[in-house]
């Protein structure tokens, strides 16, 4: 059984150089023990502001390789390296690399925080297992005090994917990690539930055209990035912000899928998930049905023994959810995501919703779509990967 140690994020503060000041002796002792595990090459689960991560010393290939075996992660999917200070960032970069003005703007605006940037990798320092032999390395500075303090106390950059078995929803609470990785990880730091609830935005600003490419939408929205670049007006023209698969398709990513896991089914609980899109104009050839046909098909589904236990993840104001929940035969397990007027709460609750419904033993999960703007872009990116099927409800 893994040891679970509570850490109090409110007892940790940082000076301008990223050095931590920790007032809780218990939290300090937990962080020191975690650091010892890491230097003994034992991965440690820890909270970040996005999701829980599974950390290993980034500059040690053997430590990093253990992450892949614990998660069952394909080795062609590279890891993010986490730093606690700007000087730690610079220690990882190629000596002749100059940080582009767009990156400096984004670092000033969003670090520490849920934004991951790609940098040309220094193969003399960063093991190839971290980058999966790509020419870039992904780096971020987390804002969760426990995450940042763990890196600083360990005095080492930490490679960390989300602390889930590969393909499962990412954990947003220590108990999610405990349930998923029980027996595979020796130590879990518990810093409470994650604020953001979805992984960081992965961004590539290294192309010669100067434009910013969002490889994975996440905790920092496209709108926030555009606003920061506009406000900084560091030169002309202001870089465009392009979203993968919406504004561009990167052939290299499609062929050797890295971000965001093109090749792998992602974020899926062990049970079938169906995405519900309520619309009066379904696309041509789409699988479109009425709410009553949907209910009938749930009742005759071979996935469930009658009466079917159906998990429903929908925003609080959902008209469709109200209609469906009136059906008296189905055993409904409703998990309210929150209101469409507070999309950050929906983001925070999505993975917890999937994992809680799975834990409650439902036969299948229905998730209703949200508009793909602001946090909605990252929410729908994860929902589409979790869903094995889409139903257009007319
Ligand atoms: O919020 C987060 O980013 C969390 C916390 C723990 O920091 N971490 C996380 O890691 O989500 P992971 O491994 O689950 O997702 C990392 C994503 C993957 O989609 C991976 O393909 C991409 O980042 N990635 C890493 N290095 C890359 C690189 N050099 N080029 C392109 N994509 C990269
Ligand atoms: Mg992950």
From TrEMBL:
<dbReference type="GO" id="GO:0005737">
    <property type="term" value="C:cytoplasm"/>
</dbReference>
<keyword id="KW-0547">Nucleotide-binding</keyword>
<keyword id="KW-0067">ATP-binding</keyword>
<dbReference type="GO" id="GO:0005524">
    <property type="term" value="F:ATP binding"/>
</dbReference>
<dbReference type="GO" id="GO:0000049">
    <property type="term" value="F:tRNA binding"/>
</dbReference>
<comment type="similarity">
    <text>Belongs to the SUA5 family.</text>
</comment>
<dbReference type="GO" id="GO:0006450">
    <property type="term" value="P:regulation of translational fidelity"/>
</dbReference>
<feature type="domain" description="YrdC-like">
    <location>
        <begin position="28"/>
        <end position="220"/>
    </location>
</feature>
<keyword id="KW-0548">Nucleotidyltransferase</keyword>
<dbReference type="GO" id="GO:0003725">
    <property type="term" value="F:double-stranded RNA binding"/>
</dbReference>
<keyword id="KW-0963">Cytoplasm</keyword>
<dbReference type="GO" id="GO:0002949">
    <property type="term" value="P:tRNA threonylcarbamoyladenosine modification"/>
</dbReference>
<protein>
    <recommendedName>
        <fullName>Threonylcarbamoyl-AMP synthase</fullName>
        <ecNumber>2.7.7.87</ecNumber>
    </recommendedName>
</protein>
<keyword id="KW-0808">Transferase</keyword>
<keyword id="KW-0819">tRNA processing</keyword>
<comment type="function">
    <text>Required for the formation of a threonylcarbamoyl group on adenosine at position 37 (t(6)A37) in tRNAs that read codons beginning with adenine. Likely catalyzes the conversion of L-threonine, HCO(3)(-)/CO(2) and ATP to give threonylcarbamoyl-AMP (TC-AMP) as the acyladenylate intermediate, with the release of diphosphate. Required for normal translation, by ensuring translation fidelity at the level of codon recognition, appropriate translation initiation selection and maintenance of reading frame. Also involved in telomere replication.</text>
</comment>
<dbReference type="GO" id="GO:0061710">
    <property type="term" value="F:L-threonylcarbamoyladenylate synthase"/>
</dbReference>
């Amino acid at each position: 059984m893994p040891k679970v140690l509570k850490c109090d994020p409110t007892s940790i503060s940082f000076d301008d150089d990223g050095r931590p000041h920790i007032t809780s002796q218990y939290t300090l002792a937990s962080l020191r023990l975690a650091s010892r595990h890491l230097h003994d090459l034992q991965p440690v689960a820890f909270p970040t502001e996005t999701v829980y991560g599974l950390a290993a010393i980034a500059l040690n290939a053997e430590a990093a390789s253990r992450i892949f075996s614990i998660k069952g992660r394909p080795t062609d999917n590279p890891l993010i390296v986490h730093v606690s200070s700007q000087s730690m960032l610079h220690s990882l970069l190629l000596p002749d690399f100059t940080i582009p003005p767009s990156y400096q703007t984004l670092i000033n605006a969003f670090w520490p925080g849920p934004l991951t940037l790609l940098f040309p990798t220094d193969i003399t320092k960063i093991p190839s297992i971290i980058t999966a032999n790509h020419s870039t390395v992904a780096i971020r500075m987390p804002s969760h005090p426990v995450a940042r303090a763990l890196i600083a106390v360990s005095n080492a950059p930490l490679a960390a994917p989300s602390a889930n078995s590969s393909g499962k929803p990412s954990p947003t609470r220590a108990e999610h990690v405990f349930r998923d990785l029980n027996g595979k990880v020796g130590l879990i730091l518990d810093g409470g539930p994650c604020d953001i609830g979805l992984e960081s935005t992965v961004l590539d600003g290294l192309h010669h055209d100067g434009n910013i490419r969002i490889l994975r939408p996440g905790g920092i929205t496209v709108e926030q990035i555009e606003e920061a670049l506009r406000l900084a007006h560091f030169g002309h023209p202001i870089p465009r912000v392009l979203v993968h698969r919406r504004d561009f398709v990167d052939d290299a990513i499609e062929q050797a899928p890295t971000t965001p896991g093109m090749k792998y089914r992602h974020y899926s609980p062990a049970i079938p998930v169906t995405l519900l899109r309520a619309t009066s104009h379904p696309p041509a050839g789409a699988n479109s049905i009425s709410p009553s046909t949907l209910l009938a098909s749930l009742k005759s589904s071979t996935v469930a023994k009658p009466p079917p236990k159906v998990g429903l993840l929908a925003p609080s104001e959902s008209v469709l959810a109200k209609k469906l929940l009136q059906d008296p035969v189905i055993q409904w397990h409703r998990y309210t995501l929150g209101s469409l007027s507070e999309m950050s709460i929906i983001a925070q609750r999505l993975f917890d919703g999937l994992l809680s419904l799975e834990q409650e033993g439902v036969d299948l999960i229905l998730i209703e779509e949200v508009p793909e703007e602001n946090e909605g872009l990252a929410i729908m990116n994860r929902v589409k990967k979790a869903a094995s099927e889409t139903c257009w409800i007319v």
